[in-house]
Structures are given as C-alpha cells and as structure tokens.
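Notes on consecutive records. When two proteins share a document, each keeps its own sequence and its own token line. Never mix them. Below: protein one.
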Amino acid sequence: MRIAVCLSELKPEPWVDGLRRALPGAEVRAWTPGAPPVDHAVVWMPPQQLLDEQPQLRGLFNIGAGVDALTRLRLPPRTQLVRLEDGGMAVQMAEYVCHALIRHFREFDVYEADAREGRWSYRKPRERGDFAVGVMGLGVLGERVARAVAQFDFPVNGWSRSGKAIDGVRGFVGDDGFDAFLSASRVLVNLLPLTEATRGILNRRNLSLLHGGQPGGYLINVARGGHLMEAELMPLLDGGQLAGATLDVFEVEPLPPAHAFWRHPKITVTPHGSARTERETSIAQIAGKIRALERGEPIGGVVDHNRGY
C-alpha cells in the first residue's frame, strides 16, 4: 500500500512519520511532482497536478473538515474524497462558540471596555430565554456546538438541509424552514459547508430576519468567509439591526491590515483559529479509514460531490 502526503503551507514530515507508525508496512512519502503512483493521498489544498498525475487514486483524505478547496478541483473518476469527521476539532469549536456567545450575552465586552477606562460599571442581567441560539449546519461540529450551548440553558434551534433530530434542539429543515429558523434565533452560529448553494448565505436579507426582524441579532461565523457578504454586514451593524459579530473566517485570509473589520467596535476578529486539526487524532482517524478501504469496508466522511460535503 502506497500513500502520498501533500500539505500546502504545512510541513509534511510529521504526518509522514505519524502515518508510518499508524500503518506499519505501508510506503508513505511526501509527494513531489512526477512521483510514482500511490493508492491514497493525505492532503491539504493540493495542486491540480497531484490529481492529474495520480488517476488511479482510491482515497483522497483531507486533513480538515471543509473540502470546498478540493471540490473545485478535477478529481479522478474513481477517487473517493474523504473529510475529517472531527480530528479533535469539535470540542474546540464548542469552546469557541460558547465563549463568543457568553461574552456577548453577559456583556463582558462592555466590562472590558469599561475596565480599560478605569470605570466600575454594572450591567443588568439579561434573560437567557431572550437569546435563542440558531446553529446553522448540524454535522459533527454543529451537533457538538448545539449540545454544548444547550448546557448553558439557552434555547437552541438547529437548521440543516436534510433534517437532524438532537435532544434539546428545536429542528428546522430545508428551504421551507429556513426563514422560520432565522426569525426564531437571536444569535446565529454558522457551521455550514461552503458550496455554491451556501455561498453568500449570510447576507443583508437573511441576517435582517434574526430575532424576528427586531434589532439585536448577533452573528458568529466559524465556517468559511465565503458565506458572508462582507459589504452587507457593516450597514446592519451601523444601523443597529445587528448588535455585533464574532468572525473567525474571511473571504481573504490573512485579513488585510486595512480591512474595516479590524477597527469596527461591534466586531470581534480572530485569525481562523476556532478549531485546529489535532495531528495525532487525525492520523489515527485517517489510518483507520485507509485500513477499512483496503478491506473493502464502507467508511464515514465520504463527500457527496453533488452536495459538496
């Protein structure tokens, strides 16, 4: 069994060494142009050249949960594209979202600003029931986030294309349930995959539906920058329709130093760090899936090319 590792902007050696330990007897090497044929490839943002040179690939394993960069490439017809189903990211994502949510709900951002000015201030407690949280996208990460938020006694809504039942989460399904989901949610958490159907979904029209169309909605985007229409967010914040936003992903990354998001008082920016792939956990998951494929067994995380996830 032969495996190639191709990781743009990352050192392949730790992954090569880890896969060799996890798959004794397999031939694992870092990919170079013109390399001999392999059975599987472990990748992050690979060039088209890799796929063109390896038409026999059976498995293409992405080391992240999002596969939008790969679905834009031309894949060999018999290659299965496989995404990480967790890789240690779910708990990190739940931490991040709960932190952003509670910081906004408890107005810790206001306390921080007052502390910088040496002001001893008091904010009247707000009711959790008034801050329904809508989780958009209920895959492995979205489900973990929804369950974590529910532990803090916030009302939780969940929306997905196909529908998913989660204890303690009010479910909304498909296009027919989308507007009702937004209207029922005051805080919107985006965990959708980026596809042609979801690009630009965080736009003026949809964000204006939050909180039943009343002012005070809040956005947490931890999926992809392409979901957000950036130019349409600012007027909603400046006009008071949205109370604020926590943004971890952007259309252009790194976010340019001159970008207005850095300086907007209602926006919290973080550098695409809401959930990082944990290498050893991911290697164990990928190795297990490769072994299953070699035995002819079905595996989870296989991407449906028609849906894009």
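Protein two starts on the next line and is unrelated to protein one.
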Amino acid sequence: MDTIASFFSFITTPVSWVIVQFHSVYGTIFGPDTGWAWGLSIVSLVVLIRICLIPLFVKQIKATRAMQTLQPEMKKIQERYKNDKQRQSEEMMKLYKESGTNPLSSCLPILAQSPFFFALYHVLNAIATGKTIGVINESLLASARNAHIFGAPLAAKFTDSADKVASLNASITDVRVVTAVMIVLMSASQFYTQRQLMTKNVDTTVKTPFMQQQKMLMYVFPVMFAVFGINFPVGVLVYWLTTNVWTMGQQMYVIHNNPTPGSKAQAAYLERLHKHVTHHGKARNRRERAIVKAIVAKGRDRNEFERKFVNGLNKAGLAAQADGTVVKSEGAAAAQATDGTATSATATATATAPRRQQPKRQTKAQRQSGTAKPAGETTPSTSLSKADQPQGDEPAAAEQASAKPGNSTRSRAQSGQRKGPQRPKSPSKK
C-alpha cells in the first residue's frame, strides 16, 4: 500500500491542497470540524476536476459518434478476415487512420480522472489510519477524523469492524446504512446514465455489435459499483456519487441539445426546433443555425427525421439556406423541396392537369362493316327519308328486293352471322 501511495505522491499533494482550500472556505460557514465542511470540499473537488475535463468530454462524444459510424465497415473487415487476426488488426488500424478516429478517445475522461480518484482514496485512507499526507497536518487530520456525514465518518468503510468504527466515534449501524444508501444511489445513477444513452441517443438505423456492448455495460457497471463500493471510505463514495450525478446531468444536456443523428433524441430535438423556427420565422441563435446548416449540407444523405424537418419548413412557407439561416419564401411551397421531393403545390398542379382522352371502343358490327368513325365525328346518315327519296325509285326498289330471295341472308351476314345457307339443326332425341 505504501508503494502505491508513493507512486501517486505526485498527485496526492495537489489534491490534498485543493481539499484544504475548499475546507477553509466552508469551515467558516458550517464549522471546521463538521461533515458539511469536509463533504462539500470533496464535492467541490469533483466539480473542479469535471470542469477541467469538459474538453476531453467533448472529444469523447466526437470519438464515440465516429466509432458508431465506422461500425458497419468494421463488421465487414471482421467477416472478411475472420481467420486472419493479424490482417484483421492491420485493416482496423488502417480504417482508424483513414477516418481520423481513435478508439481510446472515448476513454479519455475516465483515464484522466483516475489519478485524482486514487489520490483522494489514499488521502482518505491516511486520515482513517491517523497519518498526515500532503498538506494535511496534525490539526487538519484531527478535524477530518471528527467529521461525520449523517453519523458516518469520512474515513469509515462498510467492511470496517465495530472496534475500528468506534475509534472514529461512530456506530457500525450508521456507517453501514449510510454506505449502503450511497452505493445504491451510485449504481442507480450509473444505470440511468447508460440507459438513456442506449434508448435515446443511439442511431436506430444501424444495428452493430457496439450497441450490444453498450447494453451489456449498462448492467455490468452498476454491479461493479456495488461490489467495489463496500471497500471504499465514505469520503470516496461521496466523490464517486458526485461524479456519477455530474455525468448523468452532463449526458442529459448533450442528449437534449446535441443528439446523435438518427436517434430518437434527434427526432424530438428537430420537432422542438421546427416549432421554434416556424413560430419566430428564423433560426434564433448560433447553435440552431449550425444544426440547420449541417442538415442542408447533407442533401440527399439526410435521414428520415431531417427530411421531415426540411419538408415541414417548406410547407410552412420557409426555406432553409446553406448558411444555416431560415428565410420566409412565398414560393417555397410551390418550388421543389431542398432534398429533391415535390411539394404539395406541385402535386396539386399535377393532379389538376387535363387527362388524355381515350378513343371509344368500336362494336363488332362497326369493325366488320368498316363504317366506324373517330370519336367526336358524326356519321352521316346513309338512308334518305321518304320525303327526300325520288318518286320514281320506289317501284324499282321494291322489285329489286323481291327479285333477290337471299337478301335476308346477306343482312344477317352483315350483322355478324356466317354467310351462306345455314345447316339445319339436328332433331332432338327423345
């Protein structure tokens, strides 16, 4: 233990100095020997560290989204070189280099925070054993050992014996109740943080092994907190609970304001953005203009939620510009949408266009006689009324009709029947 403490000595002194500075401030308010003064000093240490790690957190978000984009390509490489692990590793490194991503970037906040965590652990462990460390002298050591949080000393553990807890002027019941409650809160906050990341901020259009790994970590991390939490002092549990709550709030802010493309959080964000833009008639701030600019730049590569957002603006008489601004346009509803789809006005004009007239179908008698005319053309009458016929033609017509006994047969042939004499029907058999 001394070897590990000496290894982290380069960071234990700065950590102890920061805690003492915060203690001097809170000690004037709550009293130097109270648990509030020392507990809030640890909380303030966490807040200070996490503020310094915000740039790394932003880099972690970008790296995580880049890794999600590369998951389909990574899966193809794994299937192609599943029998050659060396070639598979080479192709993976080549893919990372070409895309400019680093798998370790998503772990940077945890790696950067771990030295402070171990330094705080050794500071509190020294307080529990009655040893000075860093800038904590004898008077500060005695003050820290007398500090209690809800009856539990800062240096007490869940696994400590009753005699050790009694030496810190506390009861074993108070220590175990306080540590158990803090462990449950730590596990619950970690589970909720990972769950909202999986259910709201993951691209649902891509199913990759990365999602399965994240889902597994959602259940593994809370179990790890519960197992290791019983071996940490109360002050370390305060540190761990504070950093989990900070991570949960930070994750909620990112999901609400900068969601992953294609996720449910992006659908909810674009719906809110559509209401704000249509209400005010413009993008209100730089962040909204940046979102609109990114959507316009995608063109036909937009996902379902982004296309719905652009079409909603067009229907409202607004047009998204390439620089991220939104302007009013009276002809936006009649023009073609930005992603190439026709708007409602164009569809209405197409629907009201005159239809092509189809020619009327001829009857069988018209096709055989060849007297059919195009549609819309009137057929002149081939017969004359009795008043228009010449008087001298009536006897001749009558004689011609009586002299041709097969006239009725030809009439039936013209109406579609077979020419020539008809074969007599066979008598029915009785």
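For the record: Confidence is low (pLDDT under 50) at residues 332-353, 372-416.
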